[in-house]
Specification:
alpha+beta; two-stranded antiparallel ribbon; 12% strand; DNA binding
Amino acid sequence: MLHTGERPHCCSQCPKKFITLEQLNVHMNIHTGENVFSCEFCPYTTIHRMQIGRHVKIVHQGVRNYQCPHCKKALSSSIGLKNHIMIHTGEKPRACNDRRGNLKQHVNTVHQGIKNHHCTICNKSFGTTRSLKNHLMLHTGERPYACTKCPKGFIRLEQLTVHMKIHTGQDMFFCEFCPFKTFHQIQIKRHTKAVHEGVKDHHCPHCKRSFAAATALKNHLLTHTGEKPHNCSECGMRFAQRSNLMRHLKTHLKSKLFKNKGST
């Protein structure tokens, strides 16, 4: 079936198909929310506990421990390094003819970092059209996956699945002092420490202010340095906070949508 492309086991919730029943059963966890592991820093979810650790290490901590011996590039995984080294050695491992296109796209996107799909609204680039499509929803405000219990909507089904736990109470952690609740145990500890114990370990070196989170201190420091790291690709305006840039970009998007509508 690897060669024929046959996928006899179909998901009843989405178009995905699988070779084995075991693969389908694992996939169904995404839809049911059962045994789903969530990142404490972003909406990323997975049904594999090990992948959460890898995700946090690579995406949020920026850890790249695998150094190329031929150049200065560092990679986040041994597989990524192995594929990168082939650029220097010229090695071309044999690939199945039926899957050559998918393999090339996978290597280009995941291991070599090639991103040919560009957002016309901001400077971001992506490895696949699907990733670009999901990103564009951040600008348009489109949320195709709507919660049936509240007005919230989400870009991805996985995000909705995680959100639904708030309504069902599944895998929820509750603060013992106030109504705050979350499905991340570490957030309960941070909440209690910051809100109820008043602990603020992150101190500004320029003034007397202290913060409960490192990210809050980082944002505060921009008020002292005057740094505005977030740049609008449309008009050149700069912003200290990414949220302000995203809000600003929507003005350009509305203008573009209006022009496109007027030209049709």
